[in-house]
Amino acid sequence: MTLSALIRIVALVAATCLWEVQAMATDELAADGLVTIKSSFGPEDTMKRLETEVKAKGLTVFAHIDHAAGAAAVGLPLRPTDLIIFGNAKGGTPLMQQVQTTGIDLPLKALVWQDEQGATWLSYNDPAYLARRHSAGEPAKPAVAALSGALHAIATKATAP
């Protein structure tokens, strides 16, 4: 491969990444492997919709952690901050078969939280980021794509009117 061909490939990849960032709506943010989507609903309704959608996709809800309730129990204030942990072995096991340390980041998690202005957000770890974090190889790509698509669909249904 020539140097000019390599430069063109790198430029194309960079342009594609910039286009994706520019095309991203202001109601959706991504940083350091975290996808955050603004919800059209309050925290409680967003979590109910999220849990309903998770179950509708045939996934198991393993835990629900209300961080705000925990904070209140020790006398500390915290805006609504609610975590759901969910998944299934069929989706996560292929990643763990590639690199077992992905088990630290699985099952999947989603956080519903309210910012200082009262807006509600839904955040989750990008499966592609998790695969990179654990150096999962090429064989993990189908599982990563499936998890990414499912998470995006679930999050969109939970947050969009």
Textual characterization of the structure:
With 161 residues, the chain is an alpha+beta fold. It has helices spanning 3-23, 43-56, 67-73, 89-98, 127-133, 141-159, and strands spanning 28-31, 34-38, 60-66, 81-87, 108-114, 120-125. The protein has a 6-stranded antiparallel sheet with strand order 1-2-6-5-4-3. Strand 1 and strand 2 (34-38) form a beta hairpin. The radius of gyration is 18 Å and the shape is globular. Mean pLDDT is 86; it is low at 3-26.
The level of helicity is 40-55%
Quick check: average pLDDT? 86
Q: How can the largest sheet be summarized?
A: 6 strands, antiparallel
Shape: globular
How far the N terminus sits from the C terminus, by CA atoms, comes to 49 Å
Biggest sheet, spatial arrangement of strands = 1-2-6-5-4-3
How much is the radius of gyration in Å? 18 Å
Beta-strand segment tally: 6
Q: What multimeric state do the chains show?
A: single chain
Number of contiguous helices: 6
Order of helices and strands: HEEHEHEHEEHH
Structural class: alpha+beta
Percent of residues in β-strands: 15-25%
Instruction: Catalogue the unreliable spans.
Output: 3-26
Short synopsis of the structure:
This protein has 161 residues and is of the alpha+beta class. 48% of the residues lie in helices and 22% in strands. Helix 2 packs across helix 6 and helix 4 (89-98) crosses helix 6.
